[in-house]
Amino acid sequence: MLDNRHAVLQILADGRFHSGQALGTSLGLSRAAIWKIVASLRHHWGLRIQAVRGRGYRLASPVPLLAPQRIRSQLTPFTRARLHEITVRWSVDSTNRRLLQRATQEPIHGHLLLAEQQTAGRGRQGRQWHSPPAANLYLSLGWEFPPGTDLNGLSLAVAVALWRALGALGVDGHGIKWPNDLWWGNRKLAGILIEMRSEAEGPWQVVIGIGLNVAMSHLVCVDIDQPWIDLAQILGTVPDRNRIVATLLEALLPILDAHEREGLSACRADWQAADLLQGREVVMQTAGRTFRAVARGINGQGALLLETGQGLMACHAGDVRLRLADG
Question: Which top CATH class is 68-273?
Fold first, then answer.
């Protein structure tokens, strides 16, 4: 069920003028109620909405909403055939959580869930992923791996797929901050969260969650505790999110196939090419201990190799906080 803000945004998404009277008639609301909704879209969702006497309201620029048919139309036949379902929701707590719940009842292989807004988006270690509406990409893909598949380093492989997709979209100078964050110019651009479940002797049901900043509004992001960037700032224009999804899927599905056959070795060379930490001093916090080391790439399982005063050590993703020593 759409709340009134979603309903108004859906009408205004075409970038044309719509009078308060027409909006109210369409939604069964008064003009005063429409005025309050527009004010909320401006101040709480950070949308730029113009108001012109005698013409009504319109978005300063159109907002192409996510649409399954537009995504499918941009996929190759091979990729299109492997996606059993593409679903777009206006608002969910977490796309990952919804797919994981579904996995307890039925297979989720090839199911792609996207949301215009997340109310409880999550990152690694339970961190919140800020999710302003109709601005970014919040998606989860369900995938199935046979029993016994080595899933070590899967999140790093997904990061490589995203790195490749961003390059295909015209992004340059981006890289991967171990284990799977995408950064550009020392600012975070995207994050990945992978969760999985399996039954005894059954296949792995994996949910691959990706959050990508596309056109963030500074008005709704004042409380983000780390530097961030979006594609609109990098490219100088707001890209069509449907095209981004299609480009990402074309990069991601071959990576998943290769990982099932060969593990992380299938894309390790690209990961190393994208590695932002290689040869740099980092500060590691883990188990109440803080120390400095020099990053020396990854091993075959995706662990970060650190050169310390006591020699080379392998650090696995988990309850670890990592930052560059030079900030």
Answer: alpha beta
